[in-house]
Structure formats: C-alpha cells, structure tokens
Write a structure and sequence with these properties.
Shape: globular
Largest sheet: 6 strands, antiparallel
Strand order of the largest sheet: 2-1-27-26-25-24
Number of helices: 2
Helix content: under 10%
Distance between the termini: 85 Å
Length: 494
Amino acid sequence: MLLLSSAMTGCMWWKDDEVAEEEKGPFEFDQQVPITTWYHYPGTVAEPWAVDATNATGVSAANITANLTGNSTPYFANATYYGTGYDTFEPTIGVTSSGAIFFTSWNGLGDGTHIIRSRDQGQTWEDVGPFGSIDEDSGQTPNSNDPYIYIDKFTDRLVKFDMHALAAMFVEYSDDDGDSWSIPYPVEGYYVTQDHQSIASMPHPNAIVGEVVYIYCINTGSPAAGAQCSRSLTGGHTWDAQRIGYPSEHFPQCSGLHGQVVGGIDGSVYRGNPSCEGPAVYRSLDGGYTWTEHTITTEVGMQQGWHSHEVATAVDDGGNVHATWIGDGMMPWYAYSRDQGDTWSEPMMIAAPGVNETGFPTIFAGAEGRVVLGYIGEVNDIESNASVSGWSGYMAIITDAFAERPLITSVAVNHPGDPLDITSDCGNVRCGGFGDFIDVEIDDEGRPWIALAHNARGFEEAVIGTLMEGPTLYGELTYLPVLPVGGNSTLKMG
C-alpha cells in the first residue's frame, strides 16, 4: 500500500506542475507584426472605412461575424521593395513560368523602351533590350510614349507593346525570356492621337496561328470616339482594323479613357472603363469583335481627377472577374463578378487603416477567390507638417474574396520614413515615374509583385515591391518562402 501510495502521489504531483500551453489568437504570430502590415475588413458604402480585424470590440460594433479559418486564415505578412538601378515611367511588369521578372525601363526619344529582367526574384537586374534596329523610322522601337510589357500566361510569351508618337503602335515578342526578340509588327489603326494602349490574350477558337487571340485597346481621349480595339488571330503578326470597343447603342461614350485589358481562361476579355452611370467593365465573348457594357455600381462614383477613367480588372483561375477603382472620395474600391460581369458584388473600400488618400489602382487575380490590389496611398498630407508623411506603395491581399466580409491583409512595401514620393497631390496627378498607371502581377509560386517608382530623390528609379513573407495566391494556401530584406539600401541610382 505504501508503494502504491507513493506511486500515486508522484503521478498527481507531476500533473499539478504541468504548464498548459496557451492557445494563440488568430493574429498572434511567432514574430511581431510590422508597422507596415495591417489586418482589416473592408468598408461599405454606408460605412466607408477600414475595420481593424485585430480589434474585437470594433469588429463587433461593425456587426462583422469573424470567420478566420480555411481560406480566411490570417497569415503573417511582411513586405519590401528592391531597387533596379534603371529608370521607369508608367511601369508595367510580367513574370514568366521560369520565375523571370520583366519590367519596363523608359529611355525616351531615340533609344526607346527597354525591358529589364531579374532571374533572382528582384535582387539583380539586366537590360535585355530589344537592341536591334529595323530602320530609322520604325526602329525597335525608337520611342514609346507609353511603355508596356505583357506576359501571355497561356503561352508564356513576353509581349512588348509600344506606342510611337501618339500614333503608330508596334508589337514585339520574345519566346525565350528576352534573350531574343521578334521584329516589330505594326498594328492596324486609323492613327489619330491615341494613348494608354493595353494588350491581352485569351484562348479562343477564332485563333488561326497558335491557340490564343490577342486584343489591344487604346484611348482616343474623345467620349464620342470612345475606346478603340483591334484583334490579332495570327499571334500578333497581323491585326484587324480598329473597331469601337463598346456597344453601338451606347454611343456616344461618357469617357474615351479606359484601364488595361485582361483575358480569361474561358475565352472572355474585359476592359475597365467608366460608363455614364459609374465604374464599369466592358466584355467581349467573340474574341474582341463586339463588346457589352456592365456597370459595377451606381453607389460609388469615380475619382474626379487624373484617374477618373481608371477601372482596373483581373480574372482569376475560376473565370471570376475582379475590379478596382479610385472612388470620388479618393479611396480605393473593389468588387467582383462570378457571372462574367453580368452582376456584381457590393462595392468594398479596401484601403488600409489610416490611409486617407490614394491613387493609381491596379489588380491581379490568382487562384479562385485570391486577389492582390495595388495602389499608392498617403497617411498624412505633405503640407500638414506631420512627422510621417509622403506616399507609399500598398498591396491589399485577399485570400477569400467571396467571403461575406473578406479579411484583407494590407502591406506597405516601403517604410513610412522612406516615401516613394513627396508630391502633395501625387494620387491625383501624373506623378513622377508613376506616370498614368502602375502594375501588379502574381508569379507561378503565388507571390505578388508590384511595379512602382521611387521618385523622392528625383531619379524615378524603377522599384519592385513584394512579400518577404506571406500567403501564396496560387496552389495550396500556405506560406511563401522567405525573401531577403530590401528597402532604401537597395536603391542604385544617384
């Protein structure tokens, strides 16, 4: 009995001294959340401000039922940027299946736009041209008012699309990650003043050469003319004459300006463009030959300034359409459609907590329901003499877009003490290397990349922002491999 009592006493003594491990909250990670990362819910039309997801009282007051499981599980996120050593204007980017990243570098009249490439996730960059010369007029290509690069995700082709002297446009392409380039192929058009050209592809049975049809659209700057579009059934070698990029019953248009063109896996193609009622998406299901108009909302208008035309669109792997624009209150809004643009979700205000002015909306979609939205934002106006002021590059990452009130992980790619620009109204004007637009894309690993410019030192250096740590936007929802710290020390110009 004494032996038994001793054994039982020892057992009870061990249990009493065992320390139970405390269960972590959904926003408690193994490391401290950076000051450039926020977890929040979107604002609504009635309450257009961010709701801090880490504040249980605020979430309850907003009548939000938090579901932080499955695709809505919070992931630790930390962002940075890397300098390239090259200048840029209206930066666009693309990432091929090899992981190579491509970025436009604007060189002005004479040398034209070159493409810079990184094969080590933004750590180092090289100029890959094109370097050839066809003749002194058409060049390869000697000038581009709007540099533009596009990765055809369906064929992995790198497409360079240049507008020469606001009139003639040329397509060049590379099928070997920029090691060699085609000659410039002229596109068809009536060659009046044109601007803001954009190109996309999608699989379509109309294709004669290859499996995709290429579509481009341009701004005319005239509401009467509206956007004009053309298509190539021959892999970009020959092009149809330009046609109106809107339904004829909607003539005249209320805006001749538009956002970038995107193609879907289902053969659809979309272009963001304000209608006369509000932000809208125009859709073509016949390879860009005819278009229909789909207003997203009449409750949130468009910014009345430089970006009053810019509705950015994206298509995810499930064929769902996502759109973002800067509203009339200078804040970024987002909505999605699950039926090719026929109907839309309620609009959501997606800015990070504390941001009070934004500009330059851009968007890219990955796996079904996963999306990254990019913009530049200001916390305090430059003229307020606040201790922290200036413009930052933001990415809003959503891994469960179709949730009732989706969780947003927002990151700034630069530290608040290292602003990308210090122009007071940068979000509402043509600002430094940002020009008219910026760009965002997701690589095959599921990592988002945002093309920006660092203007604060006067050099307009191309910088590329990304997640050092965070969730994947393709494949299984898990953590991305960790990347090195970047930031101001990586700038190379000046």
